[in-house]
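Have a think about this chain, tokens included, and walk me through the fold.
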Amino acid sequence: MKYTRVSALAALGLAATLSLTACNGDDSGSDAAANGSSSSSSSGSSSSGSASSGSGETSQDGAKSEGGSDSKAGAGAGSGASNTGKVTFCKTADLAIDAADAAPDESTGRIDVTMINRGSTTCSATGFAGVDIKDEDNTSNPVGRGHAQPRVTTLKPGDAAVFNLAYDIDSSGDSLSHPTNLLVTPPNETHSVTLKWPEGAGAIKGAYTDVEVYPTHTTN
């Protein structure tokens, strides 16, 4: 009986030990699973943050790139707008120039010199033209400027500008001036054209220095 009781107690102890060992193993597995899940979650969260950060940097770089592109385009447009908007002075070669008698009465001599922009771009004819009068003795005499302020004279293709020569008419028949030609240099130009003295224009009273040239203006 004693042997049987001891065996029974030993069996109970062994069962208890096995039960305790089993419990401890489950806890370890649970902890490991928990740790694995936590580690996996932490790793996944970190990976997502990196992607977000990477995505943000790419977006920022892209914005800078686009901004830089826009900045260059803007500068180009501005520069282009400055060159297109700037109006240069009319070139003699782009102007059709003619002179005509425009005397308002028998005592006042006036010659209108018309300049038509036959170029393909808008230009400025603002200011005083240079004018010399050539006499039949082949001498040339510069014409002085009248007292007047220049007006802004911008010519689109096909537009015309006019400037005037003014003098007193000598009706005595004793004038010492015998003009044959006008040498005209448009404002701010160096190349001139030679025009015939207008037919029918009255004789100049006094000297060529008494003739005055006035600034250009548009015909509109």
Remarks:
- Residues 1-86 form one domain.
